[in-house]
């Protein structure tokens, strides 16, 4: 009950898969540290490089218990591919599999139920251009209406159509979602989305008139971001620092 099964996959999988496992496990630990988790629920998935297989958290573990070795490898249908003492939440993987199926540029998908993203997603008008953080999400933001628990296969197509080619999604009454070509990019996109929502909530509670950012600035923000970040999201710049932070929190994540 209190002792988790232990196993080590280091040296038994390819170097590319092991690095993907380390990055994804670090992401789970960082999400836990940011207090963005939801007990044993919500999910972050990452593609195993060079395959159509995916890594996701074992169902029943908190995010600060996730390690590189106890991540579960599955196919797009959620079938477990390797011998493991763990299972997954099939309903939780529905959203991720739907996105990975059509967005081959999405090496990582983050879907979380944070107070800020649920709140902003659930008010009329959604995310507003009220902060610099919102600038990184608004040019590539979509919405998907709530249809209940994500267990209906028919919802997959509607989710895919709503997402289109965007990299950020707000799900009214549900939460937030980001994706990226690396774990670092997906993480930084969620960080920016989360911060934008937190700031919007603070401004809404102020009952003061808010200064909105003009549309031409929103339209040009990606070009500006490339100068600042050496990339559209800053994932490649920020991720090494985030990995160092994860190691400082608990180096056990990379076991």
Shape: globular
CATH superfamily: Class II aldolase/adducin N-terminal domain
Number of domains: 1
H/E element order:
HEEEHEHHEHEEHHH
CATH architecture: 3-Layer(aba) Sandwich
Q: What's the count of strands?
A: 7
What's the Cα radius of gyration? Answer: 18 Å
Major beta-sheet overview: 7 strands, mixed
Overall pLDDT: 90
Strand content: 5-15%
N-C termini distance: 21 Å
Summarize the structure in words:
The longest helix has 24 residues, at about 185-205. The protein is globular, with a radius of gyration of 18 Å. Helix content is about 45%, strand content about 10%. Strands 3-2-1-4-7-6-5 form a 7-stranded mixed β-sheet, sandwiched between helices. The protein has one domain (about 15-245): L-fuculose-1-phosphate Aldolase, CATH 3.40.225.10. A hairpin with a 3-residue loop joins β6 (about 170) and β7 (about 175-180). It has helices at about 15-35, 90-100, 115-120, 130-135, 155-165, 185-205, 215-230, 235-250, and strands at about 45, 55, 70-75, 110, 140-145, 170, 175-180. The chain is of the alpha+beta class and about 260 residues long. The mean pLDDT is about 90. It contains 8 helices and 7 strands, in the order αβββαβααβαββααα. The protein starts with 14 loop residues before the first helix and ends in a 6-residue tail after the last helix.
